[in-house]
C-alpha cells in the first residue's frame, strides 16, 4: 500500500539478509518488527541466557524461556510470528573470524549489544566489508540511534563518533532502564534497516538521534567522518 515500498520493496525485504547482534532489550523489538515486515533471512547472535530480570524489557522472551539461550528464544518467537522466513541462531559470542564471516554475509547489521568491546568489533567488521550498520543504545530514560554506511556518501563510522579509550559503556543491568525506551530505540533501528533495504527516505547517516524520555524530547546531533579515525580514517 505504501508507494515508497510497493511490491518491489517487499521483494527487496524478502531477499535481504540481516544480522542482529544481541537479543535483549533492543534486539527483541528490532527482530520482531523485521520478521513481521518480511525480511527473508535473519541471523540472531547472543550467547547469554534469559533471566527473570530481562522480561521487563526483552519482549521476545517469556517466563517459559528463563534459562534458555536468548538467540534460541528469539528465533522461536520470530518463527511463530512469521514462519515463512529463515531465522538463524548464533549461540556463541561473535568475535574475530566468526564475526567477520557473519558480517560479510549480511546486507544490514544491527548492533543491539550493550558493551563497548562488541560495538567497536562490529563497527570494524562493517567498515572492513562495507556493510550498513544500524547502531542503537538505551539506558535509564535515554536512547540513541545512528546509521553508518562505510564506503558510501563519505559516511563516518562508530569510531568517528566515539573513541575507543578502553572505558566500558554503562549498561542496563547495572544502571537500569525504563522498559519502553528500549522498545522505542529497537523500533527505530528496525525502521532504519527497512529504509536501507528498500532504498527510501533519509537515513540517520552522519546524525545521532537522541531521545530524552523524561521530557519526551528528540534531538539530533550532526557529525562528520573523522579523517584521523583509527578504523575508517584516511590519515
Q: TL;DR?
A:
With 235 residues, the protein is an alpha/beta fold. It is 36% helix and 20% strand. Strands 3-2-1-4-5-6-7-8 form an 8-stranded mixed β-sheet, sandwiched between helices.
- N-to-C SSE series? HEHEHEHEHEEHHHEE
The CATH architecture would be 3-Layer(aba) Sandwich
As a percent range, the share of helical residues equals 25-40%
% residues in beta strands:
15-25%
CATH class: Alpha Beta
Number of domains: 1
Whole-angstrom Rg = 17 Å
How would you describe this protein?
The termini are far apart. It is globular, with a radius of gyration of 17 Å. Helix 2 (27-37) runs parallel beside helix 8 (179-198). It has 235 residues and is α/β, with parallel strands linked by helices. It has one domain (6-222): 3-Layer(aba) Sandwich (Rossmann fold), CATH 3.40.50. An eight-stranded mixed sheet has the order 3-2-1-4-5-6-7-8, with helices on both faces. It has helices at 6-15, 27-37, 70-81, 96-105, 116-129, 158-161, 172-175, 179-198; strands spanning 17-21, 41-45, 86-90, 108-111, 132-139, 142-148, 207-212, 217-222. 47% of the residues are buried.
Amino acid at each position: 500500500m505504501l508507494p515508497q515500498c510497493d511490491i518491489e520493496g517487499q521483494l527487496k525485504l524478502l531477499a535481504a539478509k540481516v544480522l542482529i547482534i544481541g537479543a535483549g532489550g533492543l534486539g527483541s523489538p528490532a527482530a520482531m518488527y523485521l520478521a513481521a515486515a518480511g525480511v527473508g533471512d535473519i541471523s540472531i547472535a547472543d550467547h547469554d541466557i534469559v533471566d527473570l530480570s530481562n522480561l521487563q524489557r526483552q519482549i521476545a522472551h517469556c517466563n517459559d524461556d528463563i534459562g534458555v539461550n536468548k538467540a534460541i528464544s528469539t528465533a522461536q518467537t520470530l518463527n511463530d510470528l512469521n514462519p515463512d522466513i529463515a531465522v538463524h541462531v548464533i549461540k556463541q559470542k561473535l568475535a574475530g573470524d566468526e564475526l567477520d564471516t557473519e558480517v560479510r554475509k549480511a546486507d544490514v547489521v544491527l548492533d543491539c549489544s550493550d558493551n563497548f568491546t562488541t560495538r567497536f568489533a562490529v563497527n570494524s567488521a562493517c567498515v572492513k566489508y562495507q556493510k550498513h550498520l544500524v547502531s542503537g543504545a538505551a539506558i535509564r530514560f535515554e536512547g540513541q540511534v545512528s546509521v553508518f554506511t562505510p564506503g558510501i556518501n563519505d559516511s563516518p563510522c562508530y569510531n568517528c563518533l566515539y573513541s575507543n579509550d578502553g572505558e566500558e559503556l554503562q549498561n542496563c543491568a547495572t544502571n537500569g532502564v525504563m522498559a519502553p525506551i528500549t522498545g522505542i530505540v529497537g523500533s527505530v533501528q528496525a525502521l532504519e534497516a527497512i529504509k536501507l533495504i528498500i532504498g527510501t527516505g533519509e537515513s540517520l547517516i552522519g546524525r545521532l538521534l537522541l531521545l530524552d524520555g523524561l521530557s519526551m524530547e528528540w534531538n539530533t546531533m550532526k557529525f562528520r567522518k573523522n579523517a584521523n579515525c583509527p578504523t575508517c580514517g584516511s590519515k
